[in-house]
Amino acid sequence: MIRRAVLGVYSLLIVVPLIVIVGGTFKTTPDLFADPFGPPRNPTLDNYATVLTGQGLLGVLGNSLFVMSISVPATLLLGSLVAFAVARLPKWPSRILFGIFALGLAVPAQAIMIPQYVQFERLGLRNSLTGLILVNIVVTLPVAVFILAGFMRTLPGELYEAAEIDGAGPWATFWRIAVPVSYPSIAATAIFLVVMHWNDLLYPLLFIDDPEKRTLPLALLDFQGEYLTEYPLLFTGVVVASLPMILAYAFLQRHFVAGITAGAVKG
Asked: Which controlled-vocabulary keywords does the entry list (predicted)?
């Protein structure tokens, strides 16, 4: 009963804000403040029209999709290559390589913002989607290596030995053996990366000044002013921004749990 009560309270903490946000997208500002928890009295789609056309959200949506469509596959490719090396190298080299990338999880992003800014300024990568793609790959690569290496380490050595007997080199073994077998873990990692890259606000806020290069999280800040916040428009922007993540999870959910628990138990 205690567990059910705790889960019930936890569910309310998630469901109630969702109801307020989704319902608020169909309300005007006075209606939202008058009855935030109730259904819309006069439902309207004006907020969606304003967000998608008047606020230029479609353009920044394209920027976010462009950054994510390159950075996520690139991170998965590099992460799976490193994870394969961690799984196949001898004991101490494998630990050293894994430890180097594990250190990337221990360093707070705020601790290296100033060096990153100076370096990007010197390289001409500030106010550039290319620079944003590079920094996303570098920052999230340790996460991908951590998850994928945990799975690839559990793969039986007989798989690799059979590939070597058939004459497959390391590159062929990686593409024909490791990647297909690791698909559930790769799919789970892809979900994490999509969420991290899509919701990233810190680095666009740090590196992007050009309004034409803004990403979606950065554009949502326009709905929040110093003295006034347009909550219906902000809620609408949040709903629009959440759709790609919902679609990604819907397509990959059957691999999510399997991918996360893979490598947790051995044998």
From this structure: Cell membrane, Membrane, Transmembrane, Transmembrane helix, Transport
